[in-house]
Structures are given as structure tokens and as C-alpha cells.
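Researcher: I'm comparing several assemblies side by side, and this is the next one on my list. It has 577 residues spread over two chains. Same procedure as the others: predict the full complex and return the structure.
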Amino acid sequence: MAIKIKPQKVLSYLFLGLMAFIFAYPFYNVFVLATWPSSQVLSFPPRFFFGAGLMENWQQLFARIPIGKNFYNSLGIALLSTGSVLFFCTMAGYAFAKFEFRFKAQLYAFVIATMAIPGFLNIIPFYKMMVAFKWVNTWLPLIVPGMAGAFGIFLMTQFLENSIPAELLDAARIDGLGEFGILIRIVFPLSKPGLAVLGIVTFVGSWNNFTGPLILLPRIDSTTLPVALSVLNSRVDNNLGALMLGNALTLLPLMLIFLFFSKQIISGLTAGAVKG
Amino acid sequence: MDKLNARRRNLTPYILISPFFILFCVFGIYPISYSIITSFFNWPLLGNAAPKFIGFDNYANVLTRDPYFFKALYNTVILLVFGSLMQHVVAVPLAILINSKIIRSKEFFKTTFFLPYITSTVSVVIIFGLLFDTNYGLVNWVISFFSEQQKIRWMFEPWGIQAVLAFILNWKFIGWNMVIYLAGLQSIPSELYEAAEIDGASTLRKHLSVTLPQLYPIMFLAIALSIIGGMQIFEEPFILTGGYDNLGGAQNAGLTSAYYLMFTAFKAYRLGKGSAIAWLLFLVILLLNGINRLAIKRLQR
């Protein structure tokens, strides 16, 4: 039996393979360059394989920026943002999905509409406000304003509409559980898949945020990884090896998360466009 | 007792949704209305000089005397066309290809194409800065096999800066758009294709007369999101061209509207003028989305 090879199929795979290479190579390149000492990062032809400068870059990186502190800030802000978003958005999503109340449709439409407001419209007065609050160089301006974000409310409303039977809630009410008790003991435990999606998406967004910390955390030891990296990048005495290692350290946590949760991340991030 | 419980239950949903509305009033509505007011003042960020009411002067200044505003708007629109709208030209065929029966390991390709979307802009821009380096970059190395001409000075030519920015935007967001179109493709009823097959339509014909029209609604949405995002592009050019000091690199080729807005407010410290730029930019976005709506309506007819 002869195996028929369709040229159409071969061409398709070649094309997709080339595209996949273009999308993946820059990531590989970061990790390769992170292992070359600064003076050897640039070469012609370019570096394709790993070098032996990792330790040197590590020392240089820690000597140049307070990267431990930056990592701590990034992680702390991302975790606290995620925690509060999960809490407040589930609350609001529960109300929109499982209660009937006056103006519900209008209020929900309003929440959704706020997502279309460009961020730059309020950034200048917002900055003045943060100066007045004395919140500059603290974590608060990067956590508090987004604690009950519209996107999270949308996601949790969508999720809760289909995942918690009304009879279960009625039964809990008959058993005398208060509304807050229902939220804690029934709604949260039953929304784990939805919480996972929203949690990962929020974490990723916070981890990658650049403009926020650029304006609000101007001090190098109170800022986050992306801003510290950009500072390192724009220095005149730029140490390329250290920069690439910092870059790799910023990328690595997200790539690991994505490796395990790509399905949740993709469905969560595109939910607004696909369902909306 | 029952009455009290009922009333408490009536209030519950309002309490549950109140955090959003409280936060939105404090950190959304208040600053946004404040920025309208600010735009009518000469309002320096530093010092104790009192803000001075100057009417529409900030707007007049931006629209008639400022050489950068229209330059930045022009750059933004160029990037919007070649960086953001171009994505759809690639993403739709890519989604169709991945969705077709002949391709297996769909999840692998989907994941790979999506990865750039979730990576930090700083990381992405730093690495592309090196890949497009004049002397040591991979891109010029590859080009050197095909062309004997002088190496391209990507980061020193205005068109080079814009090409690199457009490439980065395509690279970062094509996967995202592709996933959206994949979802759209999967919701097209298969009867439509069967009908086309009975009529003896070729594969290309089927996609042109069945797939594309069915995708119009989702295309409208995806393009609207691209416009909103594209007109706000700040991080990529800001990092690639070296921050406020370089103002977009050679001939300000990388200076986008949002970049200029940030510069005006946080480097030139002119909050009033910055707010005026913000509102003008907002009007441009509304206008472009209106055009998008009209175009899709025309197509659907």
C-alpha cells in the first residue's frame, strides 16, 4: 500500500512550523544570551547555543539593580491583586448571576461598558491623587483601584450563571445559612475552575504591568521587575549579560505558569472577545 | 421577622456589587471628570504655582502650534495599519489553516502562537532590540545570505524603527487574534459548508463566500479591540527607543500619541496640556471605531 503524501499537507505543516519557530525563537534566545558573559553576548554570527557566563551575569545583575527586592515587589503586588480580585469579583459575579434586583441589567451593562474606557483618560489626575494620598512608591495604587475589576466581574458572572444550581442556594437558605455564609461555604468552593482562570489571568496581567509601576513606583528599590529591567536596559554602562539574565528571570515564572495552565489562560483572556 | 429577612435579602445584591461602584467612583469617574477640568488649565506638575484657567488654549496649542502632536498621531496610525490591522490579515488565514482537518497537534500551535501575548513587553522589546541589532542581530545575519547590500540600520532609520515596532506588535498579538477567530470558526454551522460542497465550490471559494461573511461580526469586535489597543500603544515604542529622553528615536519615528501624552505629563510636567491630548486622542478612537462599524455594515450588506 503506497502512502500518499499530499503536497497541500506538507506545505501547511512547513508554513506552520516556520511560524512556530518565529514565535518561539526569541524566548530561546533570551535564555541562550543569559548564559554568555557581557562582552560576548554580541557576536557575528549570533549566539545559538549556551555559554558559560551564567554565574558572572548573576553577580553583575545583583550588583546593578536590587533584583531580589524587585522580584519581591512584583510577586507581592501580583499575589495581593489576585487575592482581592478573586474575592470582590466573585461577590459581584454571584450577585449578577444569582439575584434578581432592580436595575440589574443596567448596572451590569455599565460594568461591562467601563472596560472600553481607555486607560490614559484618567492617568494624569490619578497620579495627582496618588501623590495626595501619599501612595506613590507603595503597593497600594497597583492593587486597590483594580480590586473589583470589570473584567473579573464579567468572567465570574458568566461562570456562576452556569455552575451553581439555584436549588442548592435555596436549600442553604432554608437551613438557615446567611448570605455571607452562602458566599463563603458554597459559592467559593463551587467556583474553583472559574477562580483558577481569573486568578491566573490577573496574576499574569499584574506581573507584566509596566506603565503603572513606571509612574507610581519611580524608586528603583520599590519598583517591580519589568520597570527595573527597563532601567537596566537604558543605562549607559549597560551590562548585556546581566540584562538578559534579568530578562530570563522575568520570563521564567510566566512561562512555567503558561506551560501548565495554557488552556485556562487562553480561554480566560479571550473570554471577553469570544463571548461578549 | 420574615419581613426583615426579606428586606435584608433585597439589599444583599447591592452590597455584593458595591465594591466595584465605590472603587469606580473614586478611581474612575472622579479622575476622569477631573481630567476634563484639568485640560482647561495651565497646570504644572511641580512647584506651588496655582493652576491658571486658560479656556481652550491647551487644545488650540496642541492643534495649531505643536509640531509633535500630529507627527505622533501620524506614527500611531501608521503603526495601527501595519502593526495592529495587519494582524487580522495573517490571523484569519492562520486560524482557518489550524482549524482545517489536515492539521493535527492544534493545541501545540495554538499554545506556541499565544505565548508572546502573555509575556512582559519589556522582555519582548529588549530581545527584539538585539535581534534587530545592526552588526550582531539575527535578522541582519539572515538577510546577509540573500543580499550583499549594506547592513540595515534598523534602529537608526525612521522607517526601520517603525518596521521593528510593527513586527513586534504583529508577533505579540497575532496569536491572540487567531484564538478569537478560531472560536468564531468553530461556531459556523457545518451545513453551510455542505451546501457549498453540493454546489461544487472549491476550497478557496468556500472560505470566501461562507467563512469570511460568517466571521464579520467577530471581525468587527476584534478590529475594534485592535483600534482601542493600537491607538494606546505606549510601552513598545517607549522601551525600544529609550524612554522619555529620546522621544521616539530618529526623527521621532517611534513617538506615538500615548507616548507623547506621557511625555507631556510626566516629563514636561504639563498636566493641562497632557489632559487635552488625552481627550483629543479619545475623540480619534471614537471616530475610528465609528468608521470600523460603518465598514463592517457595508461588507455585511
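Model: For your comparison table: The domain at 65-234 of chain A is CATH 1.10.3720.10 (MetI-like fold).
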